[in-house]
Fold this sequence. Notes:
By secondary structure, the chain is α+β, with helices and mostly antiparallel strands. It has ten helices and eleven strands. The strands form three sheets. The protein has a four-stranded mixed β-sheet, covered by helices on one side. It is flat and about 65 Å long. The two termini are 17 Å apart.
Amino acid sequence: MANRIFTSEAVSEGHPDKVCDQIADRILDECLAFDEHSHVACEVMATNNKIFVGGEITPLPKKLNVKRIVKDTLRDIGYDSKELGTDYHSVRVKDLIKNQSEEIDNAVIGDNPKELGAGDQGLMFGYATRESKEYMPIGTVLAQALVKEATRQRKLGLFDSACPDMKSQVTIEYIDLDHVVIKKMLMSIQQKPNVDQKEFNEYVVEKIMKPVAERYGLNTDFDTFVNAGGPFTKGGPSVDTGLTGRKIIVDTYGGAAEHGGGSFSGKDPTKVDRSGAYMARYIAKNLVAAGVSDRILIQLSYSIGCSDLFSLAFKTYGGAKYSDDVILDIINKFFDCRVSEIIKNFSLTKPSFKYADISVYGHFGRDDIDLPWERLDKVDAIKKYLESIPKTK
Length: 393
């Protein structure tokens, strides 16, 4: 890999789009707790002190209290006063949810409930790289860590001049996969009025940016930017309309890999935009961890109503240790990509699994949640299989 510069961003749970993702996934969790075979496609819009919730759900739980879910989500994030523009005490909620189309519902169920069909057509990508212990692009890891740490300190009262709405951006220089340098860190953090701007900026640099860099053993002599556009006192849905599914690059690989275009939040796992993307990541991560390639991108595609793959492709960026035929054999031998098998193997409809937990701070590379698609349980078997196969030169 030649020297190159690459930038990734992340947003906090108070960002308007992420507010919507969290509400949608909490609704999904309640529907699956009511019936693990629920088909859910939930969309949310947030503007000013109003939240609109729509979409299609079958079966629709009679006790689904959308207003309560919205209020609880806003409260937990920290939108708890009228000064923030959005306040869980007084927010107005419009419930526009309806039943799913019978045609789509029937296509998913099919003739054999054990062989679920995909809830839609689509293509999705999974990516892994050995440049970080999470097998994720390091810029993405750092960007997520920044907003997560700032939010943690805000909620603990250590950073009480901050408000919920935040963004981060990290620019990395790649010398190669084993040598990366942080060039720039940027944070835009909603702040309370009349704070000392210099003290605020210094706190972000010294208590958030540098500690995060040190946590990953990286340099701290990078350029820093805090609220570069000036005071940021008005934020959240009161000044920026939020929608579900608008932070798909933040949810995945920070732009370092392709994205199929489909969002995740508010969708049950028969929607392959979600479950297929988790499967593609699972394949990619296990292949890289097993030493098959330094980096790999997996593409899967499905057709509505069909349980098995429509197509499979991959790209190794010149970092493969084995031929394409060997890699394809490994994927076919060790990974079952049927929709019903993905859902079963990852327990994606069980009440113990909470989608709300991953609706913010990324769906991949998490070390704070045991995510089934992040497990490296195929690595040993792949390595054993490769013992008798020569590497490519």
